[in-house]
Design goal:
Chains A, B: This is NADP-dependent oxidoreductase. The structure is a homodimer of 336-residue chains. Chain A is α/β, with parallel strands linked by helices and 336 residues long. The first copy, chain A, has helices at residues 51-55, 131-143, 160-171, 184-192, 207-214, 229-237, 267-270, 287-299, 316-324; strands at residues 5-11, 24-30, 38-47, 76-83, 93-96, 103-107, 112-113, 151-154, 176-181, 198-201, 219-224, 238-246, 274-277, 307-311, 331-335. The first copy, chain A, folds into two domains: 5-126 and 306-335, Quinone Oxidoreductase, Chain A, domain 1, CATH 3.90.180; 131-281, Rossmann fold (3-Layer(aba) Sandwich), CATH 3.40.50. The two termini of chain A are 23 Å apart.
Chain lengths: 336, 336
């Protein structure tokens, strides 16, 4: 009987600025026999996400940094292929956070069963029906307190969180939703497919001017995935009482020098604004509420999504680097 | 019978950078006879406040800018000297927002009776028992949600709002309160008189380093009167879930070039921080609650304060400019 193996991506060294292939190594290891209570899972899809870049640095954050020489962790979904826990029979679809490998085995408490949805790819559990959609929902509801009739600006709107945020904002009653993206094709998709009322290409010119033109009556809520000039533009466009949910700052993830912050922070005082950063781990109690509302919207056909899929565990780093550079529309995934 | 007159300070031109005497004019006008429902008030004290600098610019804000050629408005307290409203007999102590003049007359709806407190100067209604104290209370309670056992940092702590904020924070149960000020004398007062557990002179060195030394376990709440390097230092010192109440940004009020914001805005996300600006006008509904709590603290002798008093309406601009430069400890006032 051939031994089972697992091909895994490890952090080889901490990136300085943009990560490169040299910061990672691929290894294939033999897996030991299962112990009682363990299961072995063959992944179907692996998630690559912007926040992972932060964990590659050795800095204080809400989750500890990845360790050099250890495997990159993150969301994935797969099926049980061998089991030593009767509660997880072979074939069970399971989600986990054990990350960048094609096959994983561990105690079953590390896995959460994910009911198969007829006609729906398991990959959706890693984005619109999962953490990504929940992130958009938490930012708009619990952080920004979006109210009906308000105007919302989403930066990096063609990414996984951004495509979810625009649609959820409209379904929550936003009057006008504006998005920024990094190509003409993405901008077109935002208005044609994702329900954005207006969109602009941030590479076309000054973000502040483009936002002002798209939001002649100002903005009330800002969902930020980008930071930098996008945050400064939002601070300039905010109406009194505006709220920002700061979800990501991809503009600064790969810089080596700290970038200066917005020049117009004093607007926070004169307009009574709120900026609040958040990470999903503090808001997981909203998952049931999100699941109910998103399940309803999804079953009614009100939710569009895109996936950008890279095949093969050995191409995971390529997928990650492409996502950081905006090569994806919607969710970037690795298919095993 | 000699005519009644009013000596008033007008905005002559909009300051660029630091205001100078040339931006203001003094005029003395004859007052007309009172019409029915009007009262004439001789001011006892006039308030000069940092926020007034903002109203001298022609920029969008929560309150409209002062108009060139018109009188500077703001808080004052005085006594009715002539009346055409039986509800406001001569001698009544009244507060109002009609600003920089020695004598003011207007419809009585512009005035609020202020009961005389035995042995207490009417000036306290303009600071610790009034808007200044309320500002400190709103920032700590409604904006920053200060909880018992937390560590608080107050910038510009020797000013009118700062001296109130430190004491209120301790009375609300803060474990440790840290303040910054601009002279050794002020720093000494913060710990000896105002209940601060630690204080430093921001002119002595890097604010971030001094704050880190004073707050080895980090800070949970930041009450900001200064902005600039103080905000950046607070973002570096915040524990997870920290909250900032942004009340003022005196560091930038008199600059002509916009200053870059903090370099460490991404801490907002990784630590789940909240920055919220506020102006008192949106939180006046907290005045009764504040009045009750502060009245109790004050009557128990738990509240210290200082006043820096300048005499004479003609010296109001000097008082204002001195306050902007930090010449005051506690509340800067003009006595008529």
């Amino acid at each position: 009987m051939t031994k089972a193996t697992s091909t895994q991506i490890l952090l080889a060294s901490r990136p300085s600025g943009w990560p490169t292939q040299e910061n990672f190594t691929v290894q294939t290891v033999e897996l030991p026999e299962l112990e009682t209570g363990e299961i072995r899972v063959r992944n179907e899809f692996i998630s690559v996400d912007p926040y992972m870049r932060g964990r590659m640095n050795d800095t204080r954050s809400y989750i500890p940094p990845f360790q050099i020489g250890e495997q990159i962790l993150g969301g994935a979904i797969g099926r049980v292929i061998e089991t030593a826990d009767a509660a997880f029979p072979a074939g069970t679809l399971v989600q986990h956070q054990l990350g960048w490998s094609d096959t994983v085995q561990a105690g079953s408490s590390n896995f959460k069963p994910a009911p198969d949805l007829p006609g729906v790819s398991s990959s959706l559990r890693l984005h619109i029906l999962g953490m990504t959609g929940l992130t958009a929902y938490v930012g708009l509801s619990a952080i920004a307190n979006l109210a009906e009739g308000e105007t919302v600006f989403v930066s990096g709107a063609a990414g996984a969180v951004g495509t979810a945020a625009g649609q959820i904002a409209k379904l929550m009653g936003a009057k006008r939703v504006i998005g920024s993206a990094g190509s003409a094709e993405k901008v077109e998709l935002l208005t044609s497919k994702y329900g954005y009322d207006a969109a602009f290409n941030y590479k076309d010119g000054d973000v502040r001017e483009q936002l002002a033109a798209a939001a002649p009556e100002g903005i009330d809520v800002f969902f930020d995935n980008v930071g930098g000039d996008h945050l400064e533009a939002a601070l300039a466009a905010f109406n009194d009482g505006g709220r920002a949910a700061l979800c990501g700052a991809i503009a600064s993830y790969n810089t080596t020098e700290p970038a200066p912050g917005p020049q117009n922070m004093s607007n926070l005082i004169t307009r009574g604004l709120k900026l609040q950063g958040f990470t999903l781990s503090s808001y997981l109690e909203l998952a049931p509420e999100f699941g109910e509302r998103m399940g309803q919207w999804f079953s009614e056909g009100k939710i569009a999504y895109d996936e950008t899929i890279v095949d093969g565990i050995e191409n995971t780093v390529d997928a990650f680097l492409g996502m950081m550079r905006g090569a994806n529309t919607g969710k970037m995934l690795v298919r095993i």
